[in-house]
Write a structure and sequence with these properties.
The chain has a five-stranded mixed beta sheet with strand order 1-2-3-5-4. It has five helices and five strands. It is an alpha+beta fold.
Length: 129
């Protein structure tokens, strides 16, 4: 298995992206040296994702250039059910707005992310049934 990962700040495209989204995700720009970007096939996702809690990284970004937005959403949902210590988010350039420049899944520590969101006043609306 050939695992390829690099710190986001080592890639000018990611630096530009995190700079652009500072208004909605200010910590990503500040923490670029602790965000690891993986460019591997989906078969490696579980292997890499299970190591996340033991690392010094704030986030893992898994790049999947051939995935649709729907496929990423389904994959993120599956991973959220399996790894309850993490929150998996997905992003696809076709979605526009603050989306990433490549299709990807982002893994972060669930508790740390909740604290970061609280610190900037981000409140997620929960739909009532």
């Amino acid at each position: 298995m050939d695992l390829k990962g690099k710190v986001a700040k080592e890639d000018s495209t990611w630096v530009k992206y995190f700079s652009r989204i500072r208004n909605v995700c200010p910590w990503s720009y500040k923490l670029m040296d602790s965000i690891l970007v993986w460019e591997n096939d989906e078969k490696c996702l579980n292997t890499i994702a299970c190591t996340f809690p033991a690392t010094k990284f704030e986030a893992f970004v898994f790049v999947y250039k051939d995935k649709t937005a729907k496929q990423l959403e389904q994959l993120a949902d599956k991973m959220n059910k399996k790894y309850t210590h993490s929150e998996f988010l997905w992003s696809h350039p076709a979605e526009g707005g603050d989306s990433t420049h490549v299709p990807c899944i982002i893994q972060q520590d669930r508790d740390k992310l909740a604290i970061l969101r609280e610190n900037i006043g981000y409140v997620e609306e929960i739909e009532k049934i």
